[in-house]
Amino acid sequence: MKRIVVLTGAGISAESGISTFRDASGLWRNYRFEELATPEAWDRNPELVMEFYNMRRKQLFEVEPNAAHYALVELEEKYDVHIITQNVDDLHERAGSTNVLHLHGELKKARSTVAPNLVYELDRWELKIGDKCEKGSQLRPHIVWFGEAVPMIGPAAEISSTADIFIIIGTSLVVYPAAGLTDYAKPDIPKFYIDPGASYAGGISNLTIIQKKAGEGVPEIVNSLMKR
Ligand code: APR
């Protein structure tokens, strides 16, 4: 089976109603990420940081996967599909994708502040100051904040280097190390970039840019790949 590696960003969840970060109505247009998504912000004002992620987690319980998420599931009938997502939502999993690697953490999980390997599924939207891990320390969102290490980048780079086809969906490709994964894909394999705002061409070889929304562009590319 040929291996397809898919790198997704906030744009694939936009049509499900989840805000992106750098679009006109993106989160970082309304909030300063330094005040919400950094270890310093957590040390300075944990209640505010907790509220920011609680708001986003609450929304997650109210939205559904969209046609783009479901089209990627269909690919699994014919290809060995590995999804590497920058997103912290669970829409790929809820659509039925079986191979999802989260680079930046997961909104529906919390982790210990003294033992990062202690990670807990959250069945509720609200995480509160006072919610503690089994070692008695405060739980924090299981999110990779700016300035923190990206523990899954190694496995993600490894998977990217084995792709026969590489698909990029809904990401501005400005945040590293995630954006650097395209460099690990072999130069001669076909690569596709589905994003209405995609004007990026620098340095990615063998790239086809599809300036469409994910909900339209992803089913189209899946249909053509299923006919190969
Ligand atoms: N379909 C496809 N792409 C879309 C759609 C859509 N309907 N709507 C917007 N986009 C595209 C935008 O054109 C943009 O290129 O989605 C991309 C969103 O870019 P960002 O907001 O920068 O999101 P992302 O690239 O995922 O950000 C990466 O930055 O803030 C951190 O950790 C956060 O994972 C995030 C990382």
Q: What would the keywords be for this entry?
A:
29% helix, alpha/beta, three-stranded antiparallel β-sheet, six-stranded parallel β-sheet, 2 domains, binds adenosine-5-diphosphoribose, 228 residues, Rossmann fold, 8 helices, globular, SIR2/SIRT2 'Small Domain', single chain
Supply Rg: 18 Å
CATH architecture of the largest domain: 3-Layer(aba) Sandwich
> What compounds sit in this structure?
adenosine-5-diphosphoribose
* N-C termini distance: 12 Å
Number of strands: 9
Structural class: alpha/beta
Multimeric state: single chain
The domain count comes to 2
* Sequence of secondary-structure elements: EHHHHHEHEEEEHEEEH
Q: Kindly report the spatial arrangement of strands forming the biggest sheet.
A: 3-2-1-7-8-9
Biggest pleated-sheet summary: 6 strands, parallel
Q: Report the β-strand fraction as a percent range.
A: 15-25%
CATH level-3 fold name of the largest domain: Rossmann fold
Give a nutshell description of this structure:
The chain is an alpha/beta fold and 228 residues long.
Question: Explain this structure to me?
Answer:
The protein has 228 residues and is of the alpha/beta class. The chain has two domains: 3-18 and 65-104 and 149-226, TPP-binding domain (Rossmann fold, 3-Layer(aba) Sandwich); 20-62 and 108-143, SIR2/SIRT2 'Small Domain'. Helices cover 29% and strands 19% of the residues. It has eight helices and nine strands. It has helices spanning 11-14, 27-30, 39-44, 46-60, 67-75, 91-95, 153-161, 214-226; strands at residues 3-8, 80-85, 100-102, 105-112, 119-121, 139-143, 165-169, 191-194, 207-210. The chain has a six-stranded parallel beta sheet with strand order 3-2-1-7-8-9, sandwiched between helices. It has a three-stranded antiparallel beta sheet with strand order 5-4-6, covered by helices on one side. A hairpin with a 6-residue loop joins strand 4 (105-112) and strand 5. The longest helix is centred in the first third of the chain and has 15 residues, at 46-60. The protein is globular. The model has no long low-confidence stretch (mean pLDDT 96). Adenosine-5-diphosphoribose (APR) binds next to helix 1.
